[in-house]
Amino acid sequence: MTLDIRGFAAQSATTPLAPHAFVRRDPRPTDVVIDILYCGVCHSDIHQARNEWKNSIYPMVPGHEIIGRVSSVGANVSKFKVGDMVGVGCMVDSCQHCDACNEGLEQYCREGAVWTYNGIDRRDQMPTFGGYSERIVVDDKFVVRIADSLDAKAAAPLLCAGITTYSPLKYWKVGKGSKVAVIGLGGLGHMGLKFAKAMGADVTLFTRTPDKEAEARRLGADHVVLSTDEAQMKAVTRQFDFILDTVPSPHDLNPYLATLAMNGTLCLVGLLEPIEPAVAAANVVMGRRSISGSAIGGIAETQEMLDYCAKHGIVSDIEMIDIQDINGAYERMLKSDVRYRFVIDIASLKKAS
Predict the structure, then answer these.
(1) What pLDDT is attached to residue 2?
(2) Which of 36, 147, 230, 303 could form a disulfide with 310 if both were Cys (CB 3.0 to 4.6 A apart)?
């Protein structure tokens, strides 16, 4: 049966999100139907809702940090049962046969992953709609389990902000003895600090804001460097093995590259736009340094990350909002006025007119 759903949607790049009724696809034998409880608010939701990446499909129901309970499962589903607490992140499908998918890296699928919203279902060509809604239908391969020990609402941002920072730290083998820096203290940056500290690294925060030191140390930073202070930047020249750059807007990489040790790596996880100003090649050549990038993580690694969080008691710092407050939340996010991730209480949909 077709599922009629309530949610909030953007109807165009210039209109605010508002109540919207829509139809989800019929559940298939491998599908899990999830009653959504919480949905995190990601900066990419703003980019997409306002067509800043020039690929938006309207009407659009954003949201890809989804926590909910299973309400039904298809005949071929054995991993999940009714009542399970589960999560859905940025993807709901991929080709599942290319080299990337075979390695468990569905986010890099050669045929293109199907995104949780602003995508097109590869089987029936219906648009995908995200977690700013009461229910979602997802193939069981793209559903992850949420441990009972995790605070479900604070776990929601782990489905994007969490895996986006965990995956590169694991790939570049951050651990005891590593000297790691995180650029930016927002939704991604605060998770980067938590994970790097839990992995045993010596952790530094780069920030442009002088008053963030106490907060950064609470989240796991051992040191705080004011990136606008030339003396402080010079003092950390050639120090870091790995830098996690979480800033979502174009910025000068050159001062940070100078702080990398020989063979060090700066990894971009927040920026999709062109790098401006240009990188001076000497900053990478003279020291065999690398600039890299990383996007979320595969499904198996996302489950690994969630299990790691359950073991180490790691969740996001969140501010709960009603869905009726989403447009104001977007404006506050653009001013960095959130510590550190908004999460929508989907029960508030019942208040929508």
Answers:
(1) 58
(2) 147
On whether both 283 and 330 belong to a single domain, the answer is no
Q: What is the pLDDT of residue 4?
A: 80
| Residue 351 token pair | 């208040």
User: What DSSP state is assigned to residue 96?
Assistant: S
Structural domains of the chain, count: 2
Structure tokens at 299: 């499904």
230 and 142 fall within a common domain: no
pTM of this structure:
0.96
Domain termination site, one of 276, 293, 310: 293
Q: Which DSSP string corresponds to 123-145?
A: TT-PBP--SSBSEEEEEGGG-EE
Spatial distance between the Cα atoms of 198 and 229, rounded to a whole number of angstroms: 28
Task: Determine if residue 26 is left, alpha or beta; phi over 0 gives left, psi from -120 to 50 gives alpha, anything else beta.
Answer: beta
Is residue 341 within 8 A of residue 40, CB to CB? The reply is: yes
Predicted confidence at residue 265, as pLDDT, reads 98
pLDDT along the chain (353 residues), means of 10: 83 97 95 98 96 96 98 97 98 98 98 97 95 98 98 98 98 98 96 98 95 94 97 98 96 97 97 94 96 98 98 98 98 94 96 62
Q: Report how far residue 231's alpha carbon sits from residue 239's, in angstroms, rounded to the nearest whole number.
A: 14
Please name the residues in contact with 7: beta carbons below 8 A apart, sequence gap of 6 or more: 19, 20, 21, 22, 61, 129, 132, 133, 134, 349
119: domain CATH number is 3.90.180.10
Q: Please state, as a whole number, how many other Cβ atoms lie within 10 Å of the Cβ of residue 103.
A: 11
Backbone angles phi, psi at 144, to 5 degrees: -120, 155
Residues 17 and 112 in one domain: yes
**What is the distance between the alpha carbons of residues 12 and 208, in angstroms, rounded to a whole number?**
34
Quote the pLDDT of residue 60: 98
Q: What is the pLDDT of residue 1?
A: 46
Domain end among 293, 312, 341: 293
| 73 shares a domain with 106 | yes
Please check whether residue 337 is in contact with residue 198, taking contact to mean a CB–CB distance below 8 angstroms: no
Give the count of beta carbons closer than 10 Å to the beta carbon of residue 89.
29
| Domain range enclosing 110 | 3-160+297-351
Regarding whether 148 and 61 lie in a shared domain, the answer is yes
